[in-house]
Amino acid sequence: DLRGHDRAPDRHLVPHAPCAPRGDGHRLAELADQLARVRVLSRDFPPLLADMMGPLAREVLLIAYLDTHGHALGHVFLGGEDANAVHGRYRPLIAPALRLGAAGFLLAHNHPSGDPRPSAADIRATHGLQALGRALELEFADHLVVGGRQVTSMRACGLLGGRIERRRRAA
Fold first, then answer.
1. Residues 127-151: pLDDT tens digits?
2. CA distance 78 to 11
3. How far apart are CA 127 and CA 155, in angstroms?
């Protein structure tokens, strides 16, 4: 389902933090372009992440801010030390969701080691973000961990409790 692919890309993008390690920037630019076209909650998204983020030499974190249909309203990339500093600092991740009026968000990051299993720190950060998202009425759709050509969904593994709610906004 590619509904909304005809929207202007500038309506989908949040200015993102400098993050791209040299040589990886073209992959992230291509991923950013795809975010405007692909429904983030579709089956097409994890393979796209594997293609774009799996080969990266440094850890990069993607936060996609979603409308009620799972389309990206905007995104932020954080990389290198910025990606590692996210654990415990949630304001920089959540603030754009509130500014955009997003219904929810999805996190994805790569493990340059090639191991797609979530680390203990990944799981702690996920639980902290989920609690904050609940308090702010933001749906935490999933946290995807990319290792090489594999993607692990924390929701599918039972590490993100609850089901995804589909909320319609009043007109």
1. 999 999 999 999 999 999 999 999 9
2. 20
3. 11
Please tell me the pTM assigned to this model: 0.79
Rounded to the nearest 10 degrees, what angle do helices 25-35 and 45-53 cross at?
A: 160
Annotate the chain with three-state secondary structure.
CCCCCCCCHHHCCCCCCCCCCCCCHHHHHHHHHHHCCCCCCCCCHHHHHHHHHCCCCCCEEEEEEECCCCCEEEEEEEECHHHHCCCCCCHHHHHHHHHHCCCEEEEEEECCCCCCCCCHHHHHHHHHHHHHHHHCCCEEEEEEEEECCEEEECCCCCCCCCCCCCCCCCC
Tens digits of per-residue pLDDT, 60-113?
999 999 999 999 999 998 876 545 545 557 888 899 999 999 999 999 999 999
**Token couple for 140:** 């935490």
The length of the chain is 171
